[in-house]
Write a structure and sequence with these properties.
Blueprint lengths: L4 E6 L5 H10 L3 E5 L3 E6 L1 H10 L5 E10 L3 H10 L3 H4 L6 E7 L7 H20 L12 E9 L11 E8 L21 H11 L7 E3 L6 H10 L18 H12 L15 E5 L2 H14 L5 E5 L13 E4 L14 H14 L4 E6 L2 H5 L7 E7 L2 E9 L2
Parallel strand pairs: 5-6, 8-9, 8-11, 9-10, 11-12
Antiparallel strand pairs: 1-3, 1-4, 2-3, 4-7, 6-7, 12-14, 13-14
Helix pairs in contact: 2-8, 3-5, 6-7
Bound molecules: S-adenosylmethionine.
Length: 391
Amino acid sequence: MPAPFTCIAVLPPGLEQLGAAELAELGAEAVQPLRRAVAFRCDLACFYRLHLRALLPFRILRQLGRFPCDSPQDLYAGVQAAADWNHWLPPQRSFRVEVSGTAPGLTHSHFTALQVKNALVDLQRQHWGERSSIDLEAPDLCLHLHLGRASGGARGQRAGNEAVLSLDGSSGSLHRRGWRAAMGLAPLKENLAAGLIRATGWDGHVPLADPLCGSGTLLIEAACAALGRTPARTLALQRWADFNAELWERESAAAAGLARQELADGSPVAPIVGMERDPGVLEQARANAEAAGVAPWLELQGGDCRDFVPPETPGVIVCNPPYGERLGAGEDLEPLYADLGAMVKQRCSGWTLWLLSGNPELTGALRMKASRRLPVSNGGIDCRWLKYEIH
Ligand SMILES: C[S@@+](CC[C@H](N)C(=O)[O-])C[C@H]1O[C@@H](n2cnc3c(N)ncnc32)[C@H](O)[C@@H]1O
């Protein structure tokens, strides 16, 4: 029997394949990468597990209903018929509506959200004589409506527009882990960093180094993954009408039980080292590592990346140098890239370098040839996660 829920995980652009692999490892079925998303099926236990343990998604949506939608009237009627609202939304429960996409007559997300809200509160008034309040911050139910072209095209299927109404399991974005006390200069989002680390294949058995570590996002996400540390998240799904406390406790206990002091096979974690030249930002990295519970495994030092001395055994270097968009604007960054290239060639023979580039001219100054290029988006900036073998 197929798993009961149809779901969508929303992912950072470029991480769809890696995200699909992570979801499948955690038990998702019929996993299908889409643009900025992954479609899959799962049961309630797996839905909880993904919210407790998945590191790459921004959010995970559980589909309540799907219906043709070519006008505001279609939307109003379709929303009312999409689910058993007496079960999901009695008037004591608050809600919020988020919208993505468009359909004819539904091109402004605020207007579309109002249409969904009106459909629901009108239904509530008819049935209960009262209505839910709207709570934008911490609602009981976070509804997500996606409008777009119907996926049909096959014989017998219509080619118009359709609406997908879903429940969002978290009220805030899942990239927040609960450890970021301090923000460096232009930090990476935690889920993007986790995906970049996953792309390197680093598993804790060889050293990991970030010579421009900023507030430590790459190293902290890597250490958390290697040591089975799962994010601290408060989730909307705990307030849903079908919340199963026993199942939740079981999945929570299993997630907490993954935390360990060494790698899953019992071997020690190889050195994880970082360098940062700004003392204030280095302090932030230390505070973040402490909050994430991985400080004992990280060796963070102040200094210039040109003076970086790697651990003896070759491993993986990751880095996200300034590229002038948000950080280092107006600064001549070419010498930094040229010196970084020279440093790794001189001292890191046998290592693999992965560098997040937002500017191809600067990466040219490394004078190295990339063996892999993964296009990703970092806060809306088109970037490449570039792999270099250092000989
Ligand atoms: C884009 S930020 C890295 C952000 C980091 N990935 C994070 O999530 O916090 C680049 C960092 O490189 C540091 N930096 C710039 N030039 C450096 C140098 N020559 N040596 C060491 N660190 C440097 C900056 O202070 C900044 O914190």
